[in-house]
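Recap for those who missed Tuesday's class. We walked through two folding examples back to back. For each one, the amino acid string is listed first and its predicted structure tokens come directly after. Nothing is annotated here on purpose, so try labeling regions yourself before you check the end of the notes.
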Amino acid sequence: MDLVVVQSLKRNNTLNEVRNPFFLRLLTAWRSPLPDVAVEEASWYRLAVIVLFPVLLLMFTAILFLGRWSASHHLSWLSVLLSVSLLPLSCVAVVAVVQAFNRKYPLRERLCLTDWRIADFFYALLVMVVMLPLIGVINSISLAVFKICGWKVADPALQNLFRNSPWSVVVILVFGAVVLAPLAEEIVFRRIIFTAINSKFGTTAGLMVTSLLFALVHDCRAQMPALFLLGIAMQLFYLERRRLAASITLHACNNAFAVGMMLLARINGWDWVFEM
């Protein structure tokens, strides 16, 4: 991208941050153009989606199986490690192949992983302060609807794993949830899948489809509306901050809060946490 254009975009973004409140920018971020090289390399992202989609299905199946199996069997740390590493390793492989065939842009710029800022952490906390009560209300409504309709509410696989697995497995789950999952899922959903759909069908379609896929792969039927909303929030945060580092930070903060609650619940015997 031309240096003059880059400098002009940075000036416009700075002026936008000064003139408009953060949440107004966040809610209107879907109208923003994609950051940096995404539009120019859309064909590469569409190819990556084709390769990674079967991996998403395989990861979903593995975690679903382990979650159900853990309720009555002890799992080895190796089986859990392989399951939580499936998407990150596949993501690394796909990105490495793309980078090997096309070195026009550095890897960090291609993935929009440049410019990590401490301010993103505080903005992420601000989003969480607003989102957590809203997610709690939506989950409560969703669970009430399930009970009224007589639908079975199965415990999410990850909750089963945290509740029933030995501590050696729990340590791997914590690392996977707080470090591996935010990094890999944001690259796959927010960067690769969103860019591929956006380049073909527009921002709204990209936002909706990406958030729906994000909700589906987490195996939480009753929590799906809340996960869908969370996916939208992460996508808008990426578009507003114009760097993937921001949405990775938000994702990691959200997962750290959820993992922290489940660890406290397991240590103190708070079964009500796992039933939320």
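Example two. Treat it independently of the first, because the proteins are unrelated.
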Amino acid sequence: MESQFRVETNGAPLISVVIPTYNRRPYVVESLESVLHQSFRDFEVLVVDDGSTDGTEEALRPYGDSIRYIRQENRGAAAARNLGIRSCRGRCVAFMDSDDLATPQHLEKLYDFLALNPKVAMVIGNGAYLGGKSHHRTVVIPAKRARRMEKRGVTLKDLFDGRVFRLQGCMARKAALEEIGLLDERFQVCHDLDMVLRLAQRYAIGFVNEVVFLYRKHGSHVSADDELRSRENLGALENLLARYPQALDLIGRRAFFRLVAHRYYRLAKALAGKGDAQGAREAIRRALSLRPLSLKYRLCRLRTTVPG
């Protein structure tokens, strides 16, 4: 679906940066500072506090009118981001996690791409890992894949496995986010994946092969719960197939069900690690129903628990 987005600011900032936070006082000030010190200056910052109890509000009070501080009862990151989107005044929305950092040209690089490509609804930038290499690389998106997406844009197939998309590396047109119904608040972890898969069904998504954010890995991430992540990944893939059956043709039937089977395998491992042998066996049964010849999955079925 082609769409021409009009740019009429009417005195409002061009960009709104939405930062949801929950009990991240040790990190949120550093994250906010990185956003405030941008080369691009026409923006507002909304910090949505999802009911923090660790003194986050007090830590942010010195910023006064330089930010818009919004507090809600604890409802999760998706609800906090949605509140930020509904409250913002900019035509473009950039996202930042309250424990990660924006590079100084984060907003400039992403906004310039959208300005030059009026039919693109979202642009994704690369990231780097704070503290050095992870997964044997320094950047979030591997170089070969990044160069490919830079040339031809981001396809549904690229987004499919979730490894090219980090919300804190994105900027989107507010009108497009509103058109797809914002983020699904039923998801605790994978609301970002579900959202970008829905967006890709209607609009073009671009890619800037520049590091625009620094990703902090630490044990307090909600996403560290592999059972929750696996279940929600499966839910996002089920939603994609229900809403957009042609995704099977675009992605490839074999690739689609290979990933679904892998997610069930990951779920089995997570359940086994929690002592839920029955749940682990059911998850690996589902994986085998999709890939019955997989030796790895067959070996798992023979065990009462799946090794972590």
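Answers for example two:
Residues 1-7 have pLDDT under 50 and may be disordered.
The chain is about 45% helix and 15% strand.
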